[in-house]
Amino acid sequence: METNTRILGRSGIEVSALGFGCWAIGGEWQDSDGQPLGWGKVDDEESVRAIHRALDLGVTFFDTADVYGTGHSERVLGGALGKRRDEVVVATKWGNVFDEETRTLTGSDDSPAYARRALEASLRRLGTDHVDLYQLHISDADPARAAELRDQCEEFVREGLIRAYAWSTDDPERAAVFAQGEHCTAVQHALNVLQDAPQLLLRCEELELASINRSPLAMGLLGGRRHTGLESGDIRSRPPAWLQGFGDGSGADPQWLARVDALRSVLTSDGRTPAQGALAWLWARSPRTVPIPGFRSVAQAEQNAGAIAKGPLTAGQLAEVDRILGR
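Above: the chain's sequence. Below: its structure in token form.
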């Protein structure tokens, strides 16, 4: 890339071209039916070491949510950043209701009053006086209600509690509702080489929004592993309906793995690992993309951050991906 940084939409906030997603470091949690919602057991000390390594390698954007590990991810991230908080851009999300003691998701709340309570709780867990990017985490929230939440976020900006806000949704029309607010600067949505999102990328271009890419490695499928023998606390072991690529939970779907294998030569060009190639595709796909791969170890942090120096795929490689996938 010409630069290792990108600007978050119309906010003027500069971030590293690669962010780190903090879902996995929240550890195990579940819904009220016992469905696992985390990525399995986690070593907090290793998570902290990985965050520190990411900082040293130039990563300045960290994305979490209050519900990840029912508060645990925010606490780990806040503790790891410590005195280096001002060196980074912190994003978190709200909208889910949970029980921290039992690590259980119990519902959602789309009221403006809850948004304030959730933000105050996130600030305490993160150990900070402001959040740089505050994101609605109810992807299918009613647009009329979301307009009220957008206005509430504008109030948070005026109070200095947040710098900007966004909606985590895969719906371009919902993204446009939040974009009517002056300080809306992004939409977080699913995007990876296997799951393109042309309409959302077009909307980001039209509305001058950053495209923050969750699941940039397709829940790990683009990392080069076959994902057999997943532990019981891993969401991929009992994949909910929205989680594609893992079939009945016994491992990765063979059809998805075949597509990954077909892409391997182009993704591993120029000495990249498969994961680095998948991130390079995202940077080539749009100048507005900021992928946020997850991590649970120093090794993962180093591999992901190592993609920055290798830059995006070329236009020819981008076209070759489309040819292979029949797009």
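The longest helix spans residues 143-159.
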